[in-house]
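Hi support team,

I submitted a single chain yesterday and got back a structure, but I'm not sure I'm reading the token output correctly. Could someone confirm the output below corresponds to the sequence I sent? I've pasted both exactly as they appear in my results page.

Thanks,
R.
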Amino acid sequence: MGLDVGSRTVGVSMSDLLGWTAQGVEIIRINEDRSEFGIDRVKELVAEYEVTGFVIGLPKNMNNSLGPRAEAAQKYGDLLVETFGLPIDFQDERLTTVEAERMLVEQADTSRKKRKKVIDKLAASLILQNYLDGKGKLTKE
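Hi R., thanks for writing in. Yes, this is the structure output for that exact sequence:
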């Protein structure tokens, strides 16, 4: 399961059974300020898709340092480990949302309003696809 974690939404993607391609699944609404992290919905998706691990986008700064958003993503990862006991990995997601927006504008000519509804899901797909392309498949141990 690939995740693009924000302060208000979590974009979700899944790989195919062979771990070759990533597809966007949905966007989970969360509220970081109220400690609402959408874990109940993540539980449903983990069961439905028989998830064996998580890949979480790590929004590093351009100088490779970790800022507040990266730290929030790491805390979300800690919550997932605590809840599910499944392996997690982090994937550098610098410019992933920018790339997703560019794809929606150039390839799909998507309106700004429609882009907002799908951008996190597409970003999660790019995060997971980059992980699969670079590191290989998540497998059951």
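A quick pointer for reading it: The two ends are 16 Å apart (CA to CA). Let us know if anything else looks off.

Best,
Support desk
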